């Protein structure tokens, strides 16, 4: 029996539609015109064309009427659909750039209003790189991290708003030494993401008499001299213009051919505020000096950003909070005990968060430090170090109040590979000494690390000169304290057998230690299963990691099988 026939019918607009099966009622199949030799059709070639007759149109069923209208022109063979398919629609991405020092609730409101306006599919908040003309600007990594914290704690994971590190890092992961010009940033994004169409968001305060974006410049990559690129900037990219109070502009197109007012649909009004980063910095300084806290900043930035400002001592000098109830430091007066909790943290789980809290609750240390390892050649499936560090910052700054002495460290993140434990502790010690803060760093391990056949004295480091492995374990156990957490089924009779500075983590005042068996491995496994079920909300992961971490995992598709190896 002959299979279904394939034929093409010309539409009223001149396009052609492919059909399979018998020709519609009232039509007589006739031999088709041969397919042109320059078309390489996939599948069976057209075998028949349709010759229209003139049956009674009114009496036809609706489906046949449609076919009759479509076949009002002579049907001819044509190229396969892949050749005539319309180009895919590009995703419209609006760039909201600036120093973001820090990102305020006003920045977040502006980003959300761009989405609500329908004039962009996504918004990328982009903190600028280092600015020689602004020497007091906070480090780019801090401003980028605060932007990640703001986005992933303020919005739901479905909100298409992201933080971009384009101006913070080069493509090879190294630090940018200088901020990019606006034209260079947008051109780099256009080149890197050809499936997206980029626009730039500015306020009407930028479009005032005496201001001309056509005069904006870039640095020539060859000569290092300034060259004018503003004319290309305003002709190659759309600008979305937000109305600012007191800065009216009668005709935005006077400033460039692609200036577009940001307008809200369906009678909605554009929402805005007057919070500025300058005011936040001023209030942080006043609050720390007058109140010895950061209460004057509350409500102006996302809570996780406030926590980061506090722990990193941005815009103020932090006042140490006395903790007489729990403190039982055995170090010298004026020396701070800091517990170092290291690992891959791919991702950090609620179990890791609980462990950090219990270290602080026990009073064995004044502060707990979460240290994600650098790249591990022996673990090729490990997520990028920067991605894991972002998740650690999200965990620390969203799971605790800003007064909780818990923070994440990037000490290994930007190294070419993970550091040995001894090298990490030495680097942290040198960092603290440089800051003028005498610190006793204590490494956290589980009792499962101290079992027969295990000897920390044999641990090694890479010789910085020869690149060969050298034993540093003997110095590790003699120069640094170890905090040992009891693990079920891994008892240890005498800690001193494993080193002279081993100490159990024990709770004071009759409190019992609380633990959990959550693992990063289980979270990754469940994420993979959720994606296999097409569950983009990752319900199998909900409750296993801090909410902000889950939002980030979902928003950036961190554990999706085709996750890119580099961040935006």
How would the blueprint of this fold be written?
Elements: E1 6-10, E2 16-20, E3 27-31, E4 48-52, H1 62-70, H2 81-84, E5 91-98, H3 105-117, E6 122-127, H4 140-154, E7 161-163, H5 182-192, E8 196-203, E9 217-219, E10 226-228, H6 230-236, E11 238-242, E12 259-261, H7 277-290, H8 303-311, E13 336-343, H9 350-362, E14 367-372, H10 385-399, E15 406-408, H11 421-434, E16 439-446, E17 460-462, E18 469-471, H12 473-479, E19 481-485, E20 502-504, H13 520-532, H14 547-555
Parallel strand pairs: 5-6, 5-8, 6-7, 8-11, 11-12, 13-14, 13-16, 14-15, 16-19, 19-20
Antiparallel strand pairs: 1-2, 3-4, 9-10, 17-18
Helix pairs in contact: 4-8, 4-10, 8-10, 10-14
Descriptive notes:
- Helix content is 27%, strand content 17%.
- The protein contains 14 helices and 20 strands.
- It has helices at 62-70, 81-84, 105-117, 140-154, 182-192, 230-236, 277-290, 303-311, 350-362, 385-399, 421-434, 473-479, 520-532, 547-555, and strands at residues 6-10, 16-20, 27-31, 48-52, 91-98, 122-127, 161-163, 196-203, 217-219, 226-228, 238-242, 259-261, 336-343, 367-372, 406-408, 439-446, 460-462, 469-471, 481-485, 502-504.
- The longest helix has 15 residues, at 140-154.
- Mean pLDDT is 83; it is low at 26-84 and 321-329.
């Amino acid at each position: 029996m002959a299979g279904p026939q394939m034929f093409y019918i010309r539409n009223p607009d001149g396009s052609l539609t492919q059909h399979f099966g018998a020709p519609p009622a009232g039509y007589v199949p006739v031999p088709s015109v041969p397919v042109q030799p320059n078309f390489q059709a996939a599948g069976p070639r057209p075998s028949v064309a349709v010759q229209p007759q003139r049956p009674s149109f009114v009496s036809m069923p609706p489906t046949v009427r449609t076919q009759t209208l479509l076949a009002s022109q002579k049907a001819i063979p044509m190229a396969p659909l892949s050749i005539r398919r319309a180009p895919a629609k590009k995703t419209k991405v609006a760039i909201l750039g600036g120093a973001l020092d820090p990102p305020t609730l006003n920045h977040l409101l502006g980003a959300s209003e761009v989405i609500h306006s329908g004039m962009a599919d996504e918004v990328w908040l982009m903190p600028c790189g280092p600015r020689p003309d602004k020497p007091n600007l906070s480090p780019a990594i801090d401003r980028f991290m605060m932007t990640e914290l703001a986005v992933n704690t303020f919005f739901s994971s479905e909100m298409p708003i992201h933080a971009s590190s384009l101006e913070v890092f080069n493509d090879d992961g190294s630090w940018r030494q200088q901020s990019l010009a606006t034209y260079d940033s947008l051109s780099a994004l256009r080149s890197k993401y050809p499936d997206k169409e980029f626009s730039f968001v500015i306020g009407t305060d930028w479009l005032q008499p005496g201001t001309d974006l056509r005069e904006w410049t870039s640095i020539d990559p060859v000569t290092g001299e300034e060259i004018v690129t503003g004319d290309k900037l305003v002709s190659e990219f759309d600008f979305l213009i937000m109305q600012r109070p007191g800065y009216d502009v009668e005709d935005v197109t006077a400033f460039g051919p692609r200036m577009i007012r940001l307008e809200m649909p369906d009678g909605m009004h554009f929402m805005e505020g007057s919070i500025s980063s300058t005011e936040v910095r001023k209030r942080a300084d006043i609050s720390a000096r007058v109140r010895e806290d950061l209460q004057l900043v509350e409500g102006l930035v996302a809570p996780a950003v406030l926590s980061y400002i506090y722990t990193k001592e941005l815009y103020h000098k932090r006042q140490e909070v006395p903790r007489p109830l729990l403190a039982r430091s055995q170090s010298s007066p004026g020396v701070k005990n800091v517990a170092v909790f290291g690992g891959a943290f791919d991702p950090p789980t609620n179990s890791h968060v609980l462990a950090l809290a219990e270290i602080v609750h026990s009073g064995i240390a004044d502060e707990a430090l979460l240290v994600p390892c650098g790249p591990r050649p022996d673990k090729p499936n490990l997520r990028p170090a920067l991605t894991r560090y972002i998740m650690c910052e999200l965990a620390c700054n969203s799971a605790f109040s800003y007064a909780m002495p818990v923070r994440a460290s990037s000490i290994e993140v930007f190294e070419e590979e993970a550091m040995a434990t001894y090298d990490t502790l030495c680097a942290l010690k040198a960092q603290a000494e440089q800051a003028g803060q005498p610190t006793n760093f204590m490494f956290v391990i589980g009792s499962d690390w101290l079992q027969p056949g295990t000897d920390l004295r044999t641990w090694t480091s890479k010789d910085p000169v020869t690149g060969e492995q050298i034993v540093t374990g003997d110095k590790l156990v003699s120069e640094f304290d170890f905090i040992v957490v009891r693990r079920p089924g891994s008892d240890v009779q005498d800690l001193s057998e494993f080193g002279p500075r081993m100490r159990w983590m024990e709770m004071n005042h009759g409190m019992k230690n609380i633990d959990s068996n959550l693992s990063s491995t289980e979270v990754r496994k469940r994420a993979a299963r959720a994606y296999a079920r097409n569950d983009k909300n990752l319900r199998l992961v909900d409750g296993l990691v801090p909410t902000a971490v889950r939002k980030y995992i979902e928003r950036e598709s961190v554990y999706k099988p085709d996750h890119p190896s580099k961040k935006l």
